[in-house]
C-alpha cells in the first residue's frame, strides 16, 4: 500500500502531531480525507451508477419471472426474487459443459499467448539486431488491416488444416504471439527497464534466454499481469470465432451458449434465463479482476524509448 | 544426438502415415436457425430415430444458429464446400443464394410437390428449379386491438390507405413531445419496413418488376405506397423530433399503448392468452387501384450445391415435411404447415383458424425478390431520405428505379 | 565453407523436426480422438495435444528461423558479432514471424488478390484490375456512395469519439488514482462495462439507458435540466449543438455540395500555421516543427492525389507536377537537415511514382495521342531530372539549386495553368463584394445554375494545402539565411491565407443560403442539409429530449457515448502511467507555487504522454474499425448514419457475397489507417520520454 500513498496528490497527515483531539465529526472527516475527498466520492458514486447500470439490470432481470422480464414497466427488481432461475441453470448439463469449455479454451489461449508475447516483446525491446525496426513496424502494420478482411481466406486455411469443429482455430493462433497491440504494450514497458541490468548479466556470461527468464520476466510482472487481464477478458467474451469454427453444440463456449439461448425462439423471450447465465458468466471475471488488480496497477510506466 | 533425432522423426512420419483417416458412416447435418427447445427435443428423440429406421447407418445431427451469425457461417461453408447438408433459409434467400444451391428437381415427383401451397413452392424456386422444400409459413396480417380503438364498438378494420390514415390519426396521441399512444407499429417498430413497403406496392396494384424484368419503382403504385407510409409516419410523429413510446419488451399489442401493428408470431402473446378475444385480424389496406393482401413468409430447407449426397438430404426433407410430421411440428413448434392437408389441428384453434382464413383469402408469398440483399439497403436508404423530408417523392422513385436496374443488371437479371 | 554447410544442415534438421512435431501431434491427436468419447472430451484432448505440438513446433521453428536470419545476416556481410545478435533477435521474434506468415500473410495476400477481381461467392473470380477501387473511391453507384458515407462515419468516430473517450478515461483514471479508501472497488466498477462488452445484458441495458422516452439517461438529463435555469439552458444548448452539428455532418457525408466552404478550412489552418511561424526567432526547434508540418501535409496530399489519380483516367498532368513539387520539397528539406534515411525514402518514392505515371501513360493507355502524352513526359522530366541528379553522390549545393530550380518551374507552370483565375475569384472578389457592396451572391432560385456555377474541384482545394506545405518548407530551408525576409514571407502568406479563408467563408455562407432557398423553391429535391436547416431553425422547445438510437442526428453520439462508457481498458493504462509519475516532481512544483491546473498541464500530462500516445494510436485504429456496437445497435432508421467502413465491408462480403469489393474496402481502409498512424508517429515529438 505504500506505493499508493506515495503517489497521492493530496497532502498527507504523516508526521503531524495533533495538538488536541478533535471532535467526532472532524475525526470522521479526517478519516475519509477531508472535504475534497467527500466531493470526489460524490462524483465517483454518481459515475458508478452510470457504470453499474448494466450489471444491476442483469442481476435484477435474472431474478424475475418470465412475465416480469417481458413486462413494459421499468423495474430493476422483481417482486419476489426467483432463485429457481439459477437452480434451473445449475441443473443444466449443457451449461456446465459450455462453462468448462470456456475455462479450458481461455486457459490454453492465455498460456500460449502470454508467454509468446513476452518472448517477442523482449526481442523488440531489449535485443539489438539489424532489421528489428522493420519487423516491428510490420507487426504494428498488422493492426491496420480489419479482421473481417481476412475472415474468408482464414476460414479456408483452417478448413485445409482440418481444424473446423475443433478448438484449434481458437487456441492455436494465440501461441504465435497473437495481438500486436499487446506486444506493443509489453515492449513499451520492457524499454523502461534499465539497460545496465542486461549489460551486467552479459558480463557474467548470461545468454539472452537467461536474461529474459531471470531478469526481464520478473521485472515485467505488471505489464504481463495487465495483458493477462486484457487477454482473459477478450478471450472470455470472444464470440465470433467460436461461433464460426466450433459449429458443434458439444464444443460451444459460454458466449456461444448465451447467443444460442437467444437464438431459440420462444414467446415470450426467456430473458431471465439468459441473464442468469450471463451473471454466472461474468462473476468469475469480476472476482479475478478484483483479486489481481494489485499486480498490474503497480505502475507500468511508459517512459524510456523514443520512437514510440 | 542426431541419430536419436532422426529415429524420432522416422517414427513420427511412420505413425502419421500408419494412422489412416477413419471411414465414417454416412452422415447428415441439418442447420436450423431459430428453434425452440421443444422442437429440438422432438427432432432428437422422435423424428431422427424414425428417419434412421428407414435409413440405417445414417447419423443425423442438428445444429442451431441465430440469424446474427448466419451470413458469415454460410459464406464459410460455401467457400470451403464443407458444411451442413441441409440449411434453413428465410423467404428471400432463394434468389440470393440461387447458384449456391442444388437443383433438387431430379429427386422430386409430381406427387411429392402436389400437397404444398403453390406460393410456398414458388419461394423455394430459383431460375425455374426448386432448391429445397418449404417447411413452414408465417402470415403477417395486421392485428388490431378492437377493444382499445377510438372508434369503440363501431370499429371495423380499415380497408383503404385513406381509412387506415384516419384510423391511425384517431388512435395516436402525443403528450409533452413524446408519443403516448401509437395507432400503428411495424415489425421493426421504426415506422418503416422494407418488406412492408413491398406489400403496399402490391396492395396498391403494382408489381416490383416490369414485363421486361426492369424495376417498376417508377410506377404510380410505388408512389402511392411511399406516400401512404409517409403520411402515416407524419400522423403518428407530427415532427421528426418527437420522442417514441417508452420501451416495451414484451408483446407490444398487450401493452395497451399500441393499437395496431404487424408482428411475427413470436412477437405476439401465446394463442391461449384471453387477450386474443379483443384482437381483430385483417389484411393490409389497399390503394385505390389495388386489392388487400397479406404478406406470407415461407421458411424452407435448402440443399447447398456442395452436398455430395443430395438424394439422402432430399429423403430427409421429404420425411420431415410429410403430412404426419407437418401436423406434429405444427403442434410442437407452432409452425404453420405449408401443406393444407396438415391444417386440421390448427383450424381447431379459434385464433389460428382466423389467421389461416385471412392468409388463405389474401395471402401473397414474399417471393421472387431479386437481389434482395442489395435491394433492402437501397430501399431503406432512399425511403428514409423521403420519410425524413430530405428528398422529394419523384427523386426517391427515380433513384430507386435507376439503382435497382443497375443492381439487377449487375446480378445478371437483365440480359 | 564448413561452417556454412553446417548451418544449412542445421536449418534443414530444425525445419524437419518442427514439421515432424506438428505431424506427430496431429497423428497422436487423431489416434486419441477416435478412441475417446464423448466428443467434447476427445476434442479437449486434441486441443491439448495440439498445443504441446505447437509449442514444440514454435521452439524448433524459432531456432530454425533464427538460423535463417543469421544466414541472411551473413550474406549481408555483417560482422560475426552482429550475426549472433541477429540470431538471438530473430529467434525471439520468430514466434510472431512464423505466426504472421501462416495466419496473416497468406490470408492477406488472398484478400489482396480478391480485391482485384469481381469475386462473388459461388462464382469464378475474373481479374478486373483496379475497378473495385475506382468504383469505391469515385463514389460511383449505390455501393460507391454508401462506401463514401461509411468512411465519413468512420472518421466521425475517430475525430469526435476518440478525444471524448480519452478525456473520459483520463478523468476516471485520475479519480481512482487518489489515495482514498475504496478506490479498488471503484476501479472495478469503472472496468465493468469492458467485462460485459457485447453480451446480451449490455444490449438490453443500452436499449433501456438510451430510450428516448423514460430511458435512464434522458430521465437524468431532464431532471438536471429542470432543477435550475442555467442547466436548462445548457441542456437545450446541448440538444441544439448536437443536432446542428450532426445535421451538417450528415449533409457532408451524403455528398452534398458545400460550394466555396471547401476552401475555408485549409486556408484557415494555413494562415494560423504561417502566423505562428512568423513570431519570434527561428531557433532549431521551430524550424524542425515547420518542416515536419510541411512534410506531413505533403504526405497527405500525395496520398490524396494518388487516390484521385486512381479514379480519373487519364491522370491530370497537373497532378504529376503538384505531387512532384511536394516530393521535391520533401527531398530538399531532408537533404538540408542531413536526414539520410528520409531523404532516400522520398527520392525512392518520387522515382517510383514517376515511373508508374510514365508506364501508365506510355504503355497502359494506348488510345492516347502523342500530343496528349507530351505534357506528362515534360512534367515527369521537370520533376525527375533534378531528383535523379540529387541521387548521385553526396549532398551538395549544386543539388540544392537543381532541386529548387525544378520546384520553381513546376510551381510556376501549375500556377499559370489553373490556379491564377481560381485564386482571384475565390479570395479577392468575394471580400471586395462583401465589404463594399454588402452582398456576394444574389440568391437564385435556379438550382441547376447554382450547381453549375460553383464547380467543386478537389484539386483546387488541394492546391491551398500544397501552397501551405511549400511555403512552410521553403521557410524552413531558408532558415538563418534571410531571417528578415523569412518573417515577411510568413506574414504575407498568413494574410493571403486569411483572406482566402474569410472570403471563401462568406462566399460559402451565401452560396449555402442561396442553394437552400433554391432547393425549397424547387419543391424539396435531394438536399441533405435539410436536417441541418431544421435542427438550427429554432431553439429547442420545451419537452425536447435527445432521441438517441431512433434518430439519424443522435445515432452517432449514442455510439460514442457507449464507447466512452466502456473505456475501462484505456483507464487502466492511464492509471498505470499515473502511478509511475514521481511524487517528487509534484512536491517541487508545489514549492514553486504551481496550482492544480498548472501541475496537471506541466507535470502530469507530459509525464503520462507515452500512455496517452499509446491510447491515441490504438483508439484511432479501433475507431476506424468500429463494428460490433454498430452491429448490435443499428435499426432501419439509423443504419446508414451508423455504418462504418468495416460494417459496409461486412455487409458487402457476407450479406451480398461480393467478396472482391469487400476486400477492396479493407485495403482502402488499411491504407488510410497506415497513413494516419505514420503521421501520428511522425508527430509524436510531444511525447515525453524519460530516458
How would you portray this structure in words?
The complex is a heterotrimer of chains A (308), B (415) and C (691). Chain A is flat. Residues 1-17 and 301-308 of chain A have low confidence and may be disordered. Helices cover 66% and strands 0% of the residues of chain A. In chain A, helix 6 (93-125) crosses helix 15 (254-263). Chain A is an all-alpha fold and 308 residues long. Chain B has 415 residues and is α/β, with parallel strands linked by helices. Residues 17-23 of chain B have low confidence and may be disordered. In chain B, strand 4 (125-126) and strand 5 form a beta hairpin. Chain B starts with a helix and ends in a 5-residue tail after the last helix. Chain C has three domains: 2-114, no CATH class; 131-191 and 566-686, MetI-like fold, CATH 1.10.3720; 274-417 and 458-508, no CATH class. Chains A and B meet through helix 8, helix 14 and helix 15 of A and strand 2 and helix 3 of B.
Provide a concise account of the structure shown.
Helices cover 66% and strands 0% of the residues of chain A.
What's the layout of helices and strands?
The complex is a heterotrimer of chains A (308), B (415) and C (691).
Chain A: H1 2-6, H2 24-32, H3 34-62, H4 66-69, H5 84-90, H6 93-125, H7 132-141, H8 151-160, H9 168-171, H10 180-190, H11 195-203, H12 208-219, H13 221-237, H14 240-245, H15 254-263, H16 271-297
Helix pairs in contact in A: 2-3, 3-16, 6-10, 6-13, 6-15, 13-16, 15-16
Chain B: H1 2-18, E1 26-33, H2 37-54, E2 58-65, H3 67-80, E3 86-89, H4 93-97, H5 110-113, H6 118-123, E4 125-126, E5 129-130, E6 132-140, E7 142-145, H7 161-171, E8 173-175, E9 178-181, H8 194-203, H9 220-236, E10 260-262, E11 279-282, E12 294-302, H10 310-320, H11 323-332, H12 344-348, H13 350-362, E13 363-365, H14 372-387, H15 393-410
Helix pairs in contact in B: 7-9, 8-9, 14-15
Chain C: H1 2-35, H2 39-75, H3 80-114, H4 131-138, H5 141-176, H6 183-196, H7 200-209, H8 216-227, H9 229-253, H10 261-278, H11 284-311, H12 317-337, H13 340-364, H14 370-391, H15 397-426, H16 428-437, H17 447-453, H18 458-478, H19 483-521, H20 530-537, H21 552-565, H22 568-579, H23 583-591, H24 596-607, H25 609-624, H26 628-633, H27 639-642, H28 645-655, H29 659-682
Helix pairs in contact in C: 1-2, 2-3, 3-29, 4-5, 4-11, 5-21, 5-22, 5-25, 5-28, 6-22, 8-9, 9-20, 9-21, 10-18, 10-19, 11-12, 11-18, 12-13, 12-14, 12-15, 12-18, 13-14, 14-15, 16-19, 18-19, 22-25, 25-29, 28-29
Amino acid at each position: 500500500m505504500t506505493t499508493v500513498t506515495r503517489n497521492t496528490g493530496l497532502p498527507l497527515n504523516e508526521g503531524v502531531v495533533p495538538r488536541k483531539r478533535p471532535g467526532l465529526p472532524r475525526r470522521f472527516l479526517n478519516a475519509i480525507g477531508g472535504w475534497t475527498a467527500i466531493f470526489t466520492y460524490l462524483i465517483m458514486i454518481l459515475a458508478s451508477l452510470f457504470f453499474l447500470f448494466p450489471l444491476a439490470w442483469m442481476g435484477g432481470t435474472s431474478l424475475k419471472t418470465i412475465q416480469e422480464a417481458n413486462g413494459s414497466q421499468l423495474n430493476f427488481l422483481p417482486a419476489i426474487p426467483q432463485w429457481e432461475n439459477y437452480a434451473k441453470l445449475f441443473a443444466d448439463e449443457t451449461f456446465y459443459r459450455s462453462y468448462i469449455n470456456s475455462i479450458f479454451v481461455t486457459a490454453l489461449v492465455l498460456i500460449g499467448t502470454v508467454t509468446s508475447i513476452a518472448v517477442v516483446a523482449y526481442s523488440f525491446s531489449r535485443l539489438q539486431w539489424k532489421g528489428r525496426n522493420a519487423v516491428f513496424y510490420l507487426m504494428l502494420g498488422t493492426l491496420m488491416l480489419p479482421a473481417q478482411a481476412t475472415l474468408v481466406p482464414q476460414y479456408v486455411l483452417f478448413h485445409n488444416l482440418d481444424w473446423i469443429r475443433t478448438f484449434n482455430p481458437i487456441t492455436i493462433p494465440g501461441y504465435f504471439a497473437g495481438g500486436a497491440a499487446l506486444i506493443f504494450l509489453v515492449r513499451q514497458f520492457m524499454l523502461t527497464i534499465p539497460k545496465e541490468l542486461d549489460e551486467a548479466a552479459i558480463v557474467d556470461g548470461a545468454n539472452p534466454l537467461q536474461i529474459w527468464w531471470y531478469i526481464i520476466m520478473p521485472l515485467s510482472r505488471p505489464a504481463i499481469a495487465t495483458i493477462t487481464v486484457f487477454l482473459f477478458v477478450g478471450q472470455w467474451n470472444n464470440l465470433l470465432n467460436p461461433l464460426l469454427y466450433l459449429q458443434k453444440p458439444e464444443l460451444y463456449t459460454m458466449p456461444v451458449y448465451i447467443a444460442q439461448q437467444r437464438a431459440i425462439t420462444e414467446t415470450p423471450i426467456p430473458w431471465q434465463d439468459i441473464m442468469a447465465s450471463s451473471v454466472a458468466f461474468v462473476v468469475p471475471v469480476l472476482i479475478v479482476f478484483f483479486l489481481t488488480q494489485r499486480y498490474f496497477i503497480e505502475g507500468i510506466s511508459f517512459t524510456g524509448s523514443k520512437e514510440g | 544426438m542426431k541419430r536419436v533425432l532422426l529415429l524420432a522423426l522416422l517414427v513420427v512420419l511412420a505413425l502419421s502415415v500408419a494412422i489412416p483417416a477413419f471411414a465414417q458412416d454416412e452422415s447428415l447435418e441439418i442447420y436450423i436457425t431459430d428453434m425452440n427447445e421443444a422442437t429440438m427435443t422432438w427432432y432428437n428423440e422422435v423424428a431422427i430415430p424414425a428417419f434412421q429406421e428407414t435409413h440405417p447407418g445414417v447419423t443425423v445431427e442438428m445444429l442451431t444458429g441465430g440469424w446474427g451469425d448466419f451470413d458469415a457461417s454460410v459464406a464459410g461453408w460455401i467457400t470451403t464446400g464443407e458444411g451442413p447438408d441441409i440449411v434453413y433459409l428465410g423467404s428471400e434467400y432463394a434468389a440470393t443464394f440461387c447458384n449456391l444451391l442444388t437443383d433438387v428437381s431430379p429427386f422430386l415427383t409430381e406427387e411429392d410437390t402436389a400437397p404444398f401451397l403453390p406460393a410456398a413452392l414458388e419461394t423455394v424456386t430459383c431460375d425455374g428449379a426448386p432448391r429445397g422444400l418449404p417447411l413452414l409459413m408465417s402470415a403477417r396480417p395486421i392485428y388490431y386491438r378492437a377493444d382499445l380503438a377510438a372508434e369503440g364498438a363501431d370499429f371495423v378494420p380499415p380497408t383503404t390507405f385513406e381509412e387506415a390514415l384516419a384510423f391511425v390519426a384517431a388512435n395516436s396521441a402525443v403528450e409533452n413531445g413524446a408519443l403516448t399512444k401509437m395507432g400503428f407499429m411495424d415489425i421493426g417498430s421504426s415506422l418503416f419496413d422494407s418488406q412492408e413497403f413491398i406489400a403496399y406496392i402490391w396492395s396498391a396494384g403494382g408489381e416490383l418488376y416490369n414485363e421486361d424484368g426492369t424495376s417498376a419503382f417508377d410506377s404510380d403504385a410505388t408512389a402511392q405506397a411511399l406516400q401512404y407510409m409517409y403520411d402515416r409516419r407524419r400522423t403518428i410523429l407530427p415532427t421528426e423530433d418527437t420522442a417514441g413510446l417508452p420501451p416495451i419488451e414484451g408483446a407490444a399489442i398487450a401493452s395497451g399503448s399500441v393499437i395496431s401493428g404487424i408482428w411475427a408470431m413470436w412477437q405476439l402473446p401465446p394463442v391461449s392468452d384471453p387477450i386474443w378475444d379483443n384482437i381483430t385480424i385483417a389484411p393490409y389496406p389497399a390503394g385505390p387501384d389495388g386489392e388487400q393482401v397479406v404478406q406470407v413468409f415461407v421458411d424452407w430447407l435448402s440443399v447447398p450445391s456442395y452436398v455430395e449426397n443430395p438424394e439422402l438430404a432430399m429423403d430427409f426433407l421429404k420425411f420431415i415435411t410429410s403430412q404426419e410430421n407437418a401436423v406434429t411440428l405444427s403442434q410442437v413448434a407452432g409452425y404453420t404447415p405449408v401443406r393444407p392437408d396438415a391444417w386440421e389441428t390448427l383450424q381447431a384453434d379459434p385464433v389460428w383458424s382466423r389467421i389461416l382464413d385471412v392468409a388463405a383469402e389474401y395471402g401473397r408469398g414474399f417471393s421472387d425478390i431479386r437481389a434482395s440483399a442489395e435491394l433492402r439497403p437501397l430501399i431503406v436508404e432512399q425511403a428514409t431520405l423521403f420519410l425524413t423530408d430530405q428528398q422529394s417523392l419523384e427523386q426517391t422513385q427515380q433513384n430507386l428505379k435507376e439503382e435497382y436496374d443497375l443492381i439487377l443488371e449487375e446480378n445478371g437479371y437483365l440480359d | 565453407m564448413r561452417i556454412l554447410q553446417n548451418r544449412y544442415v542445421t536449418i534443414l534438421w530444425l525445419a524437419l523436426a518442427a514439421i515432424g512435431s506438428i505431424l506427430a501431434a496431429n497423428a497422436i491427436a487423431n489416434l486419441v480422438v477416435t478412441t475417446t468419447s464423448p466428443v467434447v472430451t476427445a476434442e479437449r484432448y486434441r486441443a491439448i495435444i495440439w498445443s504441446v505440438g505447437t509449442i514444440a513446433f514454435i521452439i524448433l521453428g524459432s531456432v530454425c528461423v533464427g538460423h535463417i536470419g543469421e544466414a541472411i545476416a551473413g550474406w549481408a556481410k555483417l560482422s560475426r558479432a552482429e550475426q549472433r545478435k541477429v540470431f538471438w533477435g530473430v529467434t525471439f521474434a520468430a514466434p510472431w514471424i512464423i505466426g504472421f506468415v501462416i495466419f496473416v500473410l497468406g490470408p492477406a495476400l488472398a484478400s489482396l488478390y480478391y480485391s482485384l477481381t469481381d469475386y462473388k461467392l459461388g462464382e469464378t473470380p475474373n481479374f478486373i484490375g483496379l475497378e473495385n477501387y475506382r468504383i469505391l473511391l469515385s463514389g460511383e453507384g449505390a455501393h460507391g456512395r454508401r462506401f463514401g458515407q461509411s468512411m465519413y462515419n468512420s472518421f466521425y468516430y475517430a475525430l469526435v469519439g476518440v478525444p471524448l473517450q480519452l478525456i473520459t478515461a483520463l478523468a476516471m483514471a485520475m479519480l481512482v488514482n487518489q489515495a482514498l479508501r475504496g478506490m479498488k472497488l471503484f476501479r472495478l466498477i469503472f472496468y465493468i462495462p469492458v467485462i460485459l462488452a457485447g453480451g446480451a445484458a449490455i444490449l438490453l441495458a443500452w436499449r433501456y439507458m438510451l430510450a428516448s422516452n423514460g430511458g435512464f439517461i434522458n430521465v437524468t438529463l431532464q431532471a438536471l435540466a429542470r432543477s435550475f435555469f442555467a442547466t436548462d439552458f445548457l441542456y437545450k444548448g446541448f440538444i441544439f449543438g448536437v443536432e446542428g452539428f450532426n445535421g451538417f455532418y450528415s449533409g457532408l457525408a451524403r455528398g452534398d455540395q458545400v460550394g466555396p466552404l471547401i476552401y475555408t478550412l485549409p486556408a484557415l489552418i494555413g494562415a494560423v500555421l504561417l502566423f505562428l511561424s512568423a513570431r519570434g526567432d527561428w531557433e532549431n526547434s521551430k524550424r524542425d516543427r515547420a518542416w515536419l508540418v510541411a512534410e506531413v501535409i505533403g504526405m497527405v496530399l500525395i496520398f490524396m492525389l494518388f487516390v484521385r489519380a486512381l479514379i480519373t483516367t487519364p491522370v491530370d498532368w497537373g497532378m504529376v507536377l503538384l505531387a512532384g513539387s511536394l516530393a521535391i520539397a520533401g527531398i530538399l528539406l531532408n537533404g538540408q537537415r542531413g536526414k539520410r534515411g528520409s531523404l532516400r525514402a522520398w527520392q525512392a518514392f518520387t522515382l517510383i511514382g514517376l515511373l508508374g505515371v510514365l508506364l501508365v501513360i506510355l504503355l497502359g493507355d494506348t488510345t492516347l495521342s502523342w500530343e496528349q502524352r507530351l505534357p506528362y513526359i515534360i512534367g515527369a522530366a521537370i520533376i525527375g531530372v533534378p531528383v535523379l541528379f540529387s541521387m548521385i553522390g553526396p549532398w551538395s549545393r549544386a543539388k540544392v539549386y537543381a532541386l529548387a530550380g525544378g520546384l520553381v518551374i513546376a510551381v510556376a507552370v501549375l500556377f499559370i495553368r489553373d490556379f491564377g483565375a481560381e485564386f482571384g475569384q475565390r479570395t479577392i472578389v468575394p471580400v471586395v463584394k462583401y465589404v463594399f457592396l454588402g452582398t456576394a451572391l444574389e440568391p437564385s432560385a435556379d438550382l441547376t445554375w447554382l450547381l453549375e456555377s460553383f464547380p467543386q474541384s478537389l484539386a483546387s482545394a488541394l492546391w491551398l494545402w500544397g501552397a501551405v506545405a511549400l511555403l512552410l518548407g521553403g521557410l524552413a530551408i531558408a532558415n538563418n539565411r534571410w531571417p528578415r525576409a523569412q518573417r515577411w514571407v510568413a506574414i504575407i502568406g498568413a494574410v493571403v491565407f486569411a483572406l482566402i479563408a474569410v472570403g471563401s467563408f462568406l462566399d460559402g455562407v451565401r452560396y449555402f443560403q442561396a442553394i437552400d432557398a433554391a432547393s425549397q423553391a424547387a419543391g424539396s429535391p435531394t438536399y441533405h442539409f435539410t436536417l441541418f436547416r431544421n435542427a438550427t431553425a429554432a431553439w429547442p422547445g420545451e419537452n425536447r429530449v435527445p432521441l438517441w438510437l431512433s434518430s439519424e442526428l443522435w445515432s452517432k453520439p449514442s455510439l460514442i457515448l457507449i464507447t466512452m462508457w466502456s473505456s475501462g481498458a484505456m483507464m487502466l493504462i492511464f492509471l498505470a502511467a499515473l502511478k509511475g509519475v514521481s511524487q517528487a516532481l509534484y512536491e517541487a512544483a508545489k514549492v514553486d507555487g504551481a496550482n492544480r491546473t498548472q501541475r496537471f498541464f506541466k507535470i502530469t500530462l507530459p509525464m503520462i504522454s507515452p500512455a496517452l500516445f499509446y491510447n491515441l494510436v490504438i483508439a484511432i485504429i479501433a475507431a476506424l474499425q468500429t463494428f460490433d456496437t454498430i452491429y448490435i445497435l443499428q435499426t432501419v432508421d439509423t443504419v446508414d448514419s451508423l455504418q462504418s467502413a468495416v460494417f459496409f465491408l461486412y455487409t458487402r462480403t457476407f450479406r451480398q457475397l461480393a467478396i472482391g469489393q469487400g476486400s477492396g474496402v479493407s485495403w482502402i481502409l488499411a491504407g488510410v489507417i497506415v497513413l494516419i498512424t505514420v503521421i501520428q508517429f511522425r508527430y509524436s515529438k510531444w511525447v515525453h520520454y524519460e530516458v
